[in-house]
Design a protein that fits this description.
three-stranded antiparallel sheet; 7% strand; antiport; Choline transporter-like protein; transmembrane
């Protein structure tokens, strides 16, 4: 990077700023207004009832108030066997008449039997008639015509409602699938069929029903134990705070204990390999080489060869030497990393409000997710009912063509295709709006990604500004400005919305491409074209790497924006070159920070998890009486462990941002100042001691 002109009077985050990336800011505001407009249009056209209520063959909702179907809340399929046909996959609609009913059938019956006995068994006819088309009451009409016109179903089978639809009431008896204790049924067309045919038609319903009963039990467990779960999460929060506060005293100790532990374990491994190698001396067959015995599925065979243990010993010796050499040559940089971690803990101690900033980010992201989900549902349900010709005859040329139910009977379709009907197919439309719904869904997803990335960027820039004001305070804590977090938030919103939106836009574009690639991969799963799959895999890998790199660049660019108030591109370039000039320090600090924070997350989640396990399994005598009776004790236990990990992650993400900010400030400090009276260092005394009293040249890494 080219040398930069430094302001000799620089004293921390600049207050006399100007707006950056104004064009991007204007575009961002216009896009948000457009997003609100899209939401309003979707809200006007959409109707979530289409998702909540099932729709019958006449395009009417089952259970909708103030309609004929008000008390008929369940959808009944005339011939559920047709739901197993491939047409269902194409049209997402079962090619049989669907009717709203008040309750599902509870017995086996066929139209042939009921019609034959309607004179002396009228009760059976009256029961069957409620599953026929409304108003049909003509048992004299021939069976062939009734079935052709689909006035009535050819059969009814015992069913129960699920997701407001009638599905066969399956149960297993001695490992055999039955419906109402029967394994066969009459299909109403003169055939006796096996119950497994119904199972194919209602595939997966049994599993879903089982899942639903488990879901009810899990909900009960949450209802009983939510109080204790919240206590567990509160303990996790206190442990996270304690870990961060104690890091200023324990960062070095924890790191060196771990490093020497690893060296010790590898050392023991080398000794064990040598012992095995020596022990096998003279044993017949142990001097054979791996090449001699070839490939063996039983791994134990290799453990009887001296050559195997010699190879293990050489590998472990290599790893041991590399670790020791890295410690010798990088010892100073490791000391700087640990000092920065301690400094980060000190900074958070002075600006405690930063720890609770992730709640703001969480609320912003929750709003984005909610708005996106609601808009997506309204977009998906914004359409007029589309009716299509449903013909019983496979050769009917009008099949699957759109039709108008009001004028259908006057057309010649009914003459050419006897029994053909104009039934509801799906929601859609021919207007400009309906044609571009897919584009609107893509736009909805894209703006959602942009807004989420902006919320994260705003958080990073705000925290960076607060921690930078700590570092550039010459006398700590006396020179730290009042309300550093609020001042930083105000600066980010007022001056740098455009820059943050620009960084978020670049990331959102890459993420949208990744989403599209995942969608294509999912769609092409069935194809056997290995080249296409390989190409997709390469593209997914490249864009994953690009996203990781951009996140790293953006994060450091936001820190520079928070300090200097320059535009996104300048800040990103300066941050990148500054990091490249200190590339070894970056690598060491990154790994040391990652390790200690990962250790912290495991300690918090593990500690609270063990405590919760002993509590919920009634192994703590003091609280044995307090423990609620649960269906599955793992429900609250898993919730507490995952929740604790997320709580720790929230707190530690602030700490990681703090360390990154202090590191960039530290590198700037080294390049700007030389420790003289005219140019004093702003770093803490501990960092100054590690670097030594000598004058440091800007190029020293």
């Amino acid at each position: 990077g080219e040398p930069r002109k430094f302001d000799p009077k620089f004293r921390g985050p600049i207050h006399n700023r100007h707006c950056t990336d104004v064009i991007c800011c204007v575009i961002f505001i216009v896009v948000i207004l457009g997003y609100i407009a899209l939401g309003v249009v979707a809200w006007v056209h959409g109707d979530p009832r289409k998702v909540i209520y099932p729709t019958d063959s006449y395009g009417q909702f089952c259970g909708q108030k103030e309609t004929l179907n008000e008390n008929k809340t369940i959808l009944f399929y005339f011939n559920i066997l047709k739901c197993a046909s491939p047409v269902v996959l194409i049209n997402l609609q079962c090619p049989t008449t669907q009717l709203c009913v008040s309750k599902c059938p509870d017995r086996f019956a066929t139209y042939i039997d009921v019609q034959a006995s309607y004179r002396y068994r009228p009760d059976q006819w009256n029961y069957f008639r409620q599953f026929c088309k409304p108003g049909f009451n003509n048992p004299r009409k021939s069976v062939a015509q009734v079935l052709r016109d689909e006035d009535c179903p050819s059969m009814i089978i015992p069913s129960r409602p699920f997701l407001k639809r009638c599905f066969p009431d399956f149960s297993t008896k001695n490992g055999v699938l039955t419906v109402a204790n029967q394994t066969t049924f009459k299909d109403g067309r003169g055939k006796t069929r096996n119950v497994t045919d119904l199972r194919e038609a209602a595939n997966g319903i049994n599993n879903v029903l089982d899942a639903r009963s488990i879901g009810v039990k899990i909900f009960e467990d949450y209802a009983i134990s939510w109080y204790w779960i919240l206590i567990g999460l509160f303990i996790a929060m206190m442990l996270s705070l304690l870990f961060l506060v104690l890091l200023r005293f324990t960062a070095g100790v924890l790191f060196w204990i771990f490093i020497f532990g690893v060296i010790g374990i590898i050392g023991y491994g080398i000794w064990h390999c040598y012992w095995e190698y020596d022990h096998l001396k003279g044993i017949p067959g142990s001097d054979l080489t791996v090449y001699d015995i070839g490939f063996q599925t039983d791994f134990k065979v290799y453990l009887q060869l001296r050559q195997t243990w010699l190879a293990f010993m050489i590998i472990l010796c290599g790893v041991e030497v590399i670790i020791i050499l890295m410690l010798i040559f990088l010892r100073n940089r490791i000391r700087i990393a640990i000092a920065l971690l301690k400094e980060g803990s000190r900074a958070i101690g002075y600006i405690m409000s930063t720890l609770f900033y992730p709640i703001v980010t969480f609320i912003l992201i929750a709003i984005c997710i909610s708005y996106w989900a609601v808009t997506a549902v309204f977009l998906a349900t914004s359409g007029e009912p589309v009716y299509k010709v449903m013909a019983n005859q496979t050769l009917c040329k009008y099949a699957n063509l759109t039709c108008d139910p009001e004028t259908f009977n006057t057309t010649n379709v009914t003459k050419l295709c006897p029994g053909a009907q104009c039934t509801f197919a799906f929601y859609g439309g021919e207007s400009l709006y309906h044609k571009y719904i897919f584009i609107f869904q893509l736009a909805n997803a894209f703006v959602f990604l942009w807004l989420v990335n902006f919320a994260i960027a705003l958080g990073q820039c705000t925290l960076a500004g607060a921690f930078a004001s700590y570092y550039w305070a010459y006398r700590k804590p006396a020179d730290i400005p009042l309300w550093p977090l609020f001042s930083s938030f105000g600066r980010a919103i007022r001056y740098h919305t455009g820059s943050l939106a620009f960084g978020a836009l670049i990331l959102a574009i890459v993420q949208l491409i990744r989403v599209i690639l995942e969608y294509l991969d999912h769609k092409l799963k069935g194809t056997q074209n290995s080249f296409t799959r390989f190409l997709l895999c390469c593209l997914k890998c490249c864009f994953w790497c690009l996203e990781k790199f951009l996140k790293f660049i953006n994060r450091n660019a936001y820190i520079m924006i928070a300090i200097y108030g320059k535009n996104f591109c300048t800040s990103a370039r300066e941050a990148f070159f500054l990091l490249m000039r200190n590339v070894v320090r970056v690598a060491v600090l990154d790994k040391v920070t990652d390790f200690l924070l990962f250790l912290g997350k495991i300690l918090v989640a593990g500690g609270v998890g063990v405590l919760a396990f002993f509590f919920f399994t009634q192994r703590i005598p003091v609280f044995a009486q307090e423990v609620p009776t649960l269906n599955y004790y793992w429900v609250p236990l898993l919730t507490v462990i995952i929740g604790s990990y997320l709580v720790a992650h929230g707190f530690f993400s602030v700490y990681a941002m703090c360390v990154d900010t202090l590191f960039l400030c530290f590198c700037e400090d080294l390049e700007r100042n030389d420790g003289s009276t005219a140019k004093p260092y702003f770093m803490s005394a501990s960092l100054h001691r590690i670097l030594g009293k000598k004058k440091l040249s800007p190029k020293k890494a």
